[in-house]
Amino acid sequence: MLESFLHVILYEPEIPPNTGNIIRLCANTGATLHLIEPLGFAWDDRRLRRAGLDYHEFAQVHRHADWASCRAFLGDAHVFAFSTKGTQFYHDVAYQPGDALLFGPETRGLPAHLLNSLPARQVLRLPMRSGQRSLNLSNACAVAVFEAWRQMDYCGGLHSPRGTGSDGILW
């Protein structure tokens, strides 16, 4: 398995700009991105490139033929699936270096067989207002990645020491 502070897995992503945004997120945080095929777009799609801007060269991206090959590649990594069916909030988990965050396709979410293969405590959800279906994939991914990274004290990131800055804002 590739050493990374965090792995982001997109299971059969469908919308190129979402994947491009997540490539940019991974480049900026140091997370490794895993794409499980089939993808709902061509890898050279211009919309994917435009959303990722020039960040593709700074992100570690791996493509996998299926869930089994991705899981084998990740070895013993703890996988946390994100779903509206989750029973635990994403911020109630203690993330550790090497964990993997799994997100489903934009139009249908993760399949039941995959969710059922994980312990219930590893199927997480983001809070939302009643009556809403879900958050945008790249937004949900960013919320989860930054929470995990925050818990790991932004390892590898450029940040000021905790305290009050010259502007009086607590960091």
From TrEMBL:
Q: Which InterPro entries did the record assign?
A: Alpha/beta_knot_MTases, SpoU_MeTrfase, TrmL, tRNA_m1G_MTases_N
What Pfam families does the entry give? Answer: SpoU_methylase
**Which stretches are transmembrane?**
none
Does the UniProt entry include the keyword Transferase? yes
Per UniProt, which keywords does this protein have?
Answer: Cytoplasm, Methyltransferase, S-adenosyl-L-methionine, Transferase, tRNA processing
What GO MF annotations does this protein's record show?
identical protein binding; RNA binding; RNA methyltransferase activity
Q: Which residues form the tRNA/rRNA methyltransferase SpoU type domain?
A: 6-145
In its keyword annotation, does this UniProt entry include Lyase? no
Q: Which GO terms describe its biological process?
A: wobble position cytosine ribose methylation; wobble position uridine ribose methylation
Q: What is this protein called?
A: Putative rRNA methylase
Native source organism of the sequence: mine drainage metagenome
Gene name per UniProt: yibK
